[in-house]
Amino acid sequence: MRRGLKRTTGFTIIEIFYGVSLMGLLVVLAMWRMGPALERAKIRRVASVMAGDLQYAQLMAARVRQPVVFIVVPASQAYLIRNRVDSTAIYRQRFVGSDTDYSADALTASPSNSVEIFPNGVVTQTTTFSITIDTVVRQVRISSAGQIRVLRP
Prior knowledge:
153 residues, alpha+beta, 29% strand
């Protein structure tokens, strides 16, 4: 080995900079591609939670042997399940607005904002609940026979 030459191992600062830049670019591209999928997953989650709460309302109606009411409050982006006879008996209340984990922008019901669920599972009318996050809309429908479905967009 010669005396004036020193052998070094490792990477230069330029090589490290290129490597970090490439990793950052790959992360940005992955997030750009994954963004819409994450939004669809959020709205699927809200719709499945609402469908589960509708099933819970049917269960509570059968359990207490009295009709319950599922009420949507679009102004506060919330819904609640309460006893029809005793309006102070609230079984469940859920907020799905943008300031919650669900991040919904809008929550609506059609044809009316409330549906009565009887102890045998049937309801007064077929009602469709719409949940909106950004531009994606997902609907949950309960038929007059009591069947609950999350509709595909």
